[in-house]
Design brief:
alpha/beta, Rossmann fold, 13 strands, 6-stranded parallel sheet, globular, 7-stranded parallel sheet
Length: 379
């Protein structure tokens, strides 16, 4: 079979698709990712073809500014977020996407839940689509806003908007929005902490009675040293080891006297699975990939959201009891450090996180989902 992935060209939107893509490759299927040029580096090392199609994030943001007068780099509203995903990006990408997909001839398109290019491409070409969601389902208002915009793009082509044929859900029940009812085409799929291509899942290291280790990671977009440094200074007052992801920064950018403290480790870009294997608590911005990856390992969290959908992830983690969550903009470093102390001291947070890990383990593996989709298509 030929499987075409379609995603917003952002690391956090592409990585959730990778476990399923690898499962298809292990079956012997051909897999390609369709996206802006900036997406190519994200799948470097994977046995996945790349089909260039459409505009990068900056161009889509500029288009939203042109059409609405709103600069997404200065803040996001419900309407402008929907315009970015379901309006501007579709308009700037769909023609190239259809041409690339038509030439590649996929049997199935798999899109992430904020990608509206893949589903429209599938509708135009008559190719079935599976939609992979990461984190809780979108809020009802977000669904209304995005559906209203993308429906116009279908109608202008003589098509009627329809939901994807399959809804692939990585969100464990404990994190899902209250009252949400799964659609008939729902398939649960295990989320996985990202690991390098070809890497065997690292074994969990139990560290016994030694000093606890805390991972501080703010993803690839929110890890400014001036934001993280005050938190590190507070954390290092405790008897703990601290691992900090650098992302685009260097250790010298952080206002911390490394020589004067022990137990502080800076690491460059490292697959999340490696970062999690020997830590006790995760301090995170609340990106879906980090949250789901940590919970899949049974790790409690302190969540300090910075933007995007992170406040939703934070609220659900806190409501489930798998960690302590802060409202956006209301997380002084001392209070975050105190929250870390609390999560380390109170076993209930770890207990809940481990229960959620069991929920995740009950979902289908990516290999099982790949087989199920392949079987359905071949009928």
């Amino acid at each position: 079979m030929r499987i075409l992935l379609s995603a917003t060209p952002i690391r956090g939107h592409i990585l959730p698709l990778i476990p399923l893509a690898r499962a298809f490759r292990l079956r012997g299927d051909s897999v390609a990712l369709m996206g802006a040029e900036s997406a190519a580096s994200i799948i470097a090392g994977e046995d996945i073809e790349f089909l260039r199609a459409g505009a990068g994030v900056e161009v889509s943001v500029a288009e939203v500014l042109r059409t609405t007068g709103h600069d997404l780099f200065k803040g996001v509203t419900l309407e402008t977020e929907a315009e970015f995903f379901a309006g501007a990006r579709v308009d700037l990408t769909i023609e190239e996407a259809v041409a690339a997909a038509r030439a590649w001839e996929p049997d199935l398109i798999v899109s992430e839940h904020l990608d509206f290019v893949g589903p429209l491409t599938g509708a135009i070409l008559g190719v079935p689509v599976a939609n992979l969601a990461y984190g809780p389902v979108l809020a009802a208002q977000s669904i209304e806003e995005t559906t209203a915009r993308v429906s116009k793009r279908y109608e202008s082509r003589g098509l009627q908007y329809e939901a994807a044929r399959w809804y692939l859900d990585t969100c464990p029940p404990a994190l899902q929005r209250p009252g949400w009812v799964a659609p008939e085409n729902w398939i649960g799929i295990q989320p996985q902490a990202h690991r390098a291509a070809g890497q065997v899942p690292p074994a969990r290291v139990e560290r016994g009675e030694g000093r606890p280790r805390v991972l501080v990671t703010a993803g690839t977009s929110y890890a400014a040293p001036e934001v993280v440094s005050p938190l590190l200074r507070e954390l290092l007052k405790q008897d703990i080891d601290v691992r900090v992801t650098l992302n685009r920064a260097s250790a010298e950018d952080f206002d911390v006297d490394v020589a004067a403290v022990g137990g502080l480790e800076f690491v460059g870009f490292t697959p999340l699975a490696e970062l999690l294997r020997d830590v006790d608590v995760v301090v995170t911005h609340g990106g879906a990939g980090t949250v789901l990856g940590a919970l899949a390992e049974g790790l409690p969290m302190v969540v300090v959201p910075q933007g995007a959908d992170q406040p939703v992830q934070a609220e659900r983690v806190g409501a489930a009891g798998a960690g302590i969550a802060f409202p956006m903009g209301e997380a002084p470093p001392q209070k975050v450090a105190d929250a870390v102390r609390t999560v380390l001291a109170e076993p209930s947070y770890r207990t809940v996180a481990e229960k959620i890990a069991a929920e995740i383990a009950d979902y289908n593996t990516p290999a099982e989902v790949a087989e199920r989709l392949a079987s359905a298509i071949s009928r």
